[in-house]
Amino acid sequence: MGDLPAFDINALLASMGSSPFDAMSYLFFNGGWVLFIVAFVWMFIYGWLEYKQTKYLQSKVGICLAIDIPKNTERDAGQALRGVENIFAHLAGAHSSISWTDKWFKGALQDEISLEIISIEGRVQFIVYTVRRFRDLVEASIYAQYPEAEIVEVEDYSKNAPSHYPDREYDLWATEMTPVKSDLYPIKTYPLFEHSMTSELKDPISVLLEAFSRLGPGEQAWLQFILIPIEQKKYREKAEALIKKLKGEKTVSKPSLLEQILFAPFNLFIAMANAFMGGSTEAKKPEKDMFAAKIFNLTPGERKVLEAVENKASKIAYTCKIRFVYVAKKAVFEKPRIVNSFIGFMKQMNTNDMLALKPDLKKVGLTGSRWFFKDKRNNLHKNRLIKHYRQRSAWDGMPPYYLNTEELATYWHFPHTFQVRAPQLKKREVKSVEPPYNLPIV
After folding, report:
1. Cα 348 to Cα 187: distance, rounded to the nearest angstrom
2. Which of 212, 299, 313, 416 could connect to 239 by a Cys-Cys bridge, CB 3.0–4.6 Å?
3. Residue 268 · residue 30 · CB < 8 Å
4. Taking a C-beta distance cutoff of 8 angstroms, is the pair 114, 394 a contact?
5. Alpha-carbon dihedral of residues 389, 393, 395, 399, nearest 10 degrees?
6. What is the Rg, in whole angstroms, of the alpha carbon atoms belonging to the chain?
7. What is the pLDDT of residues 359-415, one digit of tens each?
8. What confidence tens digit (pLDDT) does each residue in 416-435 have?
9. Does residue 173 contact residue 339 with C-beta atoms inside 8 Å?
């Protein structure tokens, strides 16, 4: 076996001094071409995966389940939201480990569950949209907490609105919610809406349902929570890293294999530059940790944040997306009235020292501040948003973020109907014999 050709560092350093292009050529013909092959293979593999996953998503058939609000939420206000939290914990059973062959040859993805609150001309309805094989899981989760609820399959209401804009008769405003800081921090959850002395809950969803019930003929509002069941290990590891940081503990993250491959040329270049400049390539010794006892010097506010992050990490989490759509006939289209109410509802759960969600108005949302081709670009975003909403897509638009069962129960739950005066909120009386509720078609 012959000897491998030696890498001539002096030749490289000489070419660096004369021409950067000569140095790049030298690196390419002396082993750098391997990186181009790796990059090409990587793009081909993941291009294939994206193609198969797109085919898989197009083949899915979903069902739309309408839930009539159970009357017993009026009798047990203190436990109602905890019951909904139990529903979310049970729905986490939808998570399944996807085999290597299913992922790469079938494009299989984790199927999501979409929880929705809609108003069609003021008629408010709770909806669950998911794949048919999850129907038994969804119904069992809800009936276990609310035996008197009524769940019926209905047509997808979102198909009754135009799918392409501009439209002669309808207009649309829509957005996705995005976190303003790390999603490992929690939002303000329902226990903080309970009075400390009387334990009376001021239901945060009341303001949303009140606004939804005020929509008139020709108006619709849709609120969507996409839930992707996940394996909890990775989420827990990220949360533990943040907890250590808040405590003042040092954390060292090892680079992944892909990062090591990608950064190998840069590390080699830095090492050679240090050798050429006479610098040392030895790692610096870590300085003495002056903040080892930070945990004992936390302020009350810092301690509150630490406890809240630990509480969020202790519960089952999903990766989630939140979308909102307001669609109405142009003659009655009045965006500020319903959009401001929706944003106000979301802001109830925001905090300045932890997690807050805001509407995205640049990447996927709509805004009037665009300078060039404003109408054309906004209409393009409208078409994409309603398409992603109808598909219940967890992969298009803004990246998903972590919300746990307590946070989801705060956003989406059956209201305490004695606090909600919405006259068209659909409720089911015990022992009712009325026919199943059908969504109206506009």
Report:
1. 9
2. 313
3. no
4. no
5. 40
6. 27
7. 998 888 887 666 777 888 889 999 999 999 999 998 889 999 999 999 999 999 998
8. 754 555 555 665 554 444 44
9. yes
DSSP class per residue in 303-333: HHHHHHHHHHHTS-EEEEEEEEEEEEETTT-
For the purposes of burial, counting CB atoms within 10 Å of the CB of 199, is it exposed (0-12), middle (13-18) or buried (19 or more)? Answer: exposed
| Strand pairing category for 62-70 and 427-428 | parallel
Task: Check: CB of residue 154 under 8 Å from CB of residue 299.
Answer: no
Estimate to the nearest angstrom the gap between the alpha carbon of 165 and the chain centroid: 26
pTM over 0.85: no
> Which alpha helices (DSSP H) does 159-228 contain, by range?
206-213
The amino acid sitting at 224 is: Q
235 token code pair: 């989420």
Torsions phi, psi for 431 (to 5 deg):
65, 30
Annotate 408-419 with DSSP letters as a single string. Answer: HHHHS----TTT
Alpha helices of 214-256 — where are they, by DSSP H? Answer: 232-247
| Cβ(114)–Cβ(130) below 8 Å | yes
Residue the block writes with tokens 């797109």: 54
Burial 236-266 (b: 16+ CB within 10 A, else e): eebbeebbeebebeeeeeeeeeeeeeeeeee
Q: Which helix (H) or strand (E) holds 264?
A: helix 257-277
